[in-house]
């Protein structure tokens, strides 16, 4: 089966050869074609080439066009540093002085920063393999993007001292998100939402409800209105906000390795598809193929029969230097388990 056939059949409850599997390949794709991560900067054709090559090498079920979390914030004025061969990082927020907040404007995805090049990568990937595999484009959600506009520490302080400014930043970020999500859909892709700063490892469930949830809900409503489903990933500990994530409208929750996949199945598996959660660093990067196999089987044991479905995946994006053998091991384990997923002896 092609990935598109597999996902469609699985969603319809029809027979499939195996569960969908998505080791979340980001900048590891650079290693597949032998280029440096920094070469991706502003080069949509190269991003597409790498991601398509990685898909063809490993045979996973969803391509995700992603290089770093900062593309939208950079398009709104944040300063991003691009090392020669490492993932980009935030060098400076868009503004240092809150007096400049009214100068911020939503980004135009067809003009600002490197958003046009990421859209080019999506279009190229769809042109090359869109008839067999879904292509998604990463969207950094409103609250997290807002943290890149003023700095994470300052945003946390503003939640207590000037909540109206946080809402203003989230509203600006939402408008950028909606414009970019619309452009992703117009490119023939599906927006994939990531919201690192909304984690319980950073803010409380109450703060999530006040500052992140309203904007997430509106973003998801927009994407649903365009006829597209939504996968939502929030890093770190999320058990206290699973109900809210479902309430916001997510169709699939990508569960980080810091959360318990089995608990998620019991808590919300009857209402939303789950995805996860092999540890991307301790297992996928640092482990050996046998360890990857064991971790993958553990995920299967916890969630293979989740009522709304399950996608085997890494808990977050894979580190750049993840060994190819470990990515193959995850796919090979899922293939060997088949469907209905069998209990296999531990490697």
UniProtKB/TrEMBL annotation:
<dbReference type="InterPro" id="IPR000257">
    <property type="entry name" value="Uroporphyrinogen_deCOase"/>
</dbReference>
<dbReference type="Pfam" id="PF01208">
    <property type="entry name" value="URO-D"/>
</dbReference>
<protein>
    <submittedName>
        <fullName>Uroporphyrinogen decarboxylase family protein</fullName>
    </submittedName>
</protein>
<feature type="domain" description="Uroporphyrinogen decarboxylase (URO-D)">
    <location>
        <begin position="3"/>
        <end position="336"/>
    </location>
</feature>
<dbReference type="InterPro" id="IPR038071">
    <property type="entry name" value="UROD/MetE-like_sf"/>
</dbReference>
<dbReference type="InterPro" id="IPR052024">
    <property type="entry name" value="Methanogen_methyltrans"/>
</dbReference>
């Amino acid at each position: 089966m092609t990935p598109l056939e597999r996902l469609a059949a699985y969603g319809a409850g029809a027979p499939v050869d195996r569960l969908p599997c998505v080791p979340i390949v980001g900048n590891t794709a650079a290693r597949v074609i032998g280029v440096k991560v920094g070469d991706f900067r502003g080069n949509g054709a190269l991003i597409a080439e790498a991601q398509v090559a990685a898909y063809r090498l490993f045979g996973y079920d969803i391509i995700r066009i992603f290089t770093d979390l900062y593309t939208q914030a950079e398009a709104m004025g944040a300063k991003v540093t691009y090392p020669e061969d490492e993932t980009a990082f935030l060098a400076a927020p868009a503004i240092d002085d809150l007096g400049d907040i009214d100068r911020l404007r939503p980004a135009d995805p067809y003009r600002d920063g490197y958003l046009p090049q990421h859209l080019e990568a999506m279009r190229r990937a769809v042109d090359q393999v869109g008839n067999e595999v879904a292509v998604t484009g990463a969207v950094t959600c409103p609250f997290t993007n807002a943290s890149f506009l003023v700095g994470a520490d300052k945003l946390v302080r503003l939640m207590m001292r000037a909540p109206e400014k946080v809402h203003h930043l989230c509203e600006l970020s939402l408008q950028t998100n909606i414009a970019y999500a619309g452009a992703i859909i117009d490119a023939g892709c599906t927006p994939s939402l990531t919201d690192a700063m909304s984690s319980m490892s950073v803010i409380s469930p109450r703060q999530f409800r006040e500052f992140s949830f309203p904007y997430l809900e509106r973003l998801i409503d927009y994407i649903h209105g365009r006829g597209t489903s939504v996968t939502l990933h929030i890093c770190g500990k999320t058990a206290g906000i699973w109900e809210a994530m479902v309430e916001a409208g997510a169709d699939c929750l990508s569960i980080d390795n810091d959360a318990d996949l089995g608990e998620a199945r019991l808590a919300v598996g009857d209402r939303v598809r789950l995805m996860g959660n092999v540890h991307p660093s301790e297992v996928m990067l640092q482990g050996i193929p046998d360890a990857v196999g064991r971790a993958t089987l553990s995920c299967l044991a916890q969630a293979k029969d989740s009522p709304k479905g399950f996608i085997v995946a890494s808990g977050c994006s894979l580190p750049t230097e993840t060994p190819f053998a470990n990515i193959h091991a995850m796919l090979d384990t899922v293939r060997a388990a088949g469907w209905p997923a069998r209990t296999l002896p531990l490697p």
